[in-house]
């Protein structure tokens, strides 16, 4: 089957979803009012609340939500065949993610630009907000552990990508200072930075000396390393320690010094990456070799598919961005449809191309099945397969395979690193907020909170022994990431439903995806926590059991509180 | 066509600078807040040796003071001596 046809079907559904479904939701359900005074105008302060052009807000929103997760999830989910992953990404984007991202944006706009956490407090109560904070805390902790492993793994597998990624740091600091002190424009310096990075990538791909291959420094895969461990485990340890030191510094610096200029460079990488992949697809039109549905599966697609593809179909994290920053910048309420819904469509398009890169990689269905022989195998090699598949597409644009692989791995590492920085920073804020709520002032100190965040993440990634040995604790946690992220999305949809009901409007458009998502997530979680990770489970793991059980109990608690709020009819809000 | 391309590049640049600009503005605002706290310090019980000199700045600071107390979540001025709204 032609991959171009699959892409075209997906894109047409996205377009129809945006053109008709989002219009219906905007006009009949959310009832957007072009004359409504948005928080950007109401509280205009030139800092957080700034009325901004809708295309600009969309671009900012999209680059904030698009990271490594919409690539990683689909690359693993094709384990059940390409069709289920494709259908969930396309239909999930149109009927769940679009409504969710759009809804959290509208809800926040109608409530002084407040974030989802604050709105949970207002709509359900203080206890719900605290539980919500705990779920987000565990979620970001997992992201730290997972992404530290993902980056270390990519550095070990693709040593040519190390130098260009590290060169990005001084370049970003230079841009930050140039813009802050010199008030120069950002576009040209960040494009120069990107060109330098890719130039170094080309050099590093061809010159062995420029490849920072820690495993080779120890004498290759079989050789002995530090503290009686093998070379690969030692390399993991070294990379994770370096990454943890880096995120500590990055998350305590003012954001304009490093994080934001790095985000600009990464925004270009997102544009370049998507352009390369879709153009590569257009020019080469590779055949889909993976089976549409895979019968040989040790883990059932139901309900696990819906939590494996988290970002890319629907993601709770998007609600945090929608209600955190985008809602404060909306010029007109009617722009919410373009920013929120079309933002989700952009993310869906990224997930779609991730699926296509993987399912066109292998020469035959047999090779695909061999590479995706078990769910554990899919988890371990999914991202590597994406890098290979994407570089094969880039090869269609006459980019040599070695250079294409390095550039794709740089893009993935950069996205993962941005997510890592942001989530460590977010974890610091949450720890500080909990410190304030529970009257432990020491926790609200920047270095105390950051140290707790970094040490907990490092312990989590290093302590447990994963299937790939030392350092793969983060990889063990990936299934938990999907569930807690989807829970967050489900709870956000619940909040929108409560709000819609109080307005006396039809709330089925958010209630149906919410019920679907919460049932799938809780079912998957219940199955995993009880039958897989508990002491009598098939794959006993106390760490996952405890974390999973805590999230499960908190989630059920919030949902019960929220449903009792939903069924009450007493409060009417404006 | 050329104009459209220019607008597109402008939007792209604006999209990149949006968070950066607000972060720099936030830093400057924090500095301003600190400066204002020093000016109004004696009203919150912190002795200010240069009180005499700062007194004449108050009329110029009123608008900023109003923005500050709104931002801090106080509908009305928290200081008895200064009623800006």
UniProtKB/TrEMBL annotation, chain A:
UniProt lineage: Bacteria, Bacillati, Bacillota, Bacilli, Bacillales
Membrane topology reported for the UniProt record: Multi-pass membrane protein
Amino-acid biosynthesis listed as a keyword: no
Keywords: Cell membrane, Membrane, Transmembrane, Transmembrane helix
Transmembrane segments: 6-21, 62-80, 86-109, 130-152, 158-180, 187-207, 227-249, 270-288, 300-321, 341-362, 398-421, 442-463, 475-500, 507-530, 542-566
Residue ranges of domain CstA N-terminal in the record: 3-363, 376-524
Main location: membrane
Family membership noted in the UniProt record: Belongs to the peptide transporter carbon starvation (CstA) (TC 2.A.114) family.
InterPro entries per record: CstA, CstA_N
Localization, UniProt: Cell membrane
Protein name: Carbon starvation protein A
Automatic annotation (TrEMBL), chain B:
InterPro entries: CC_star_Cory, DUF7990
Name of the protein in question: DNA helicase
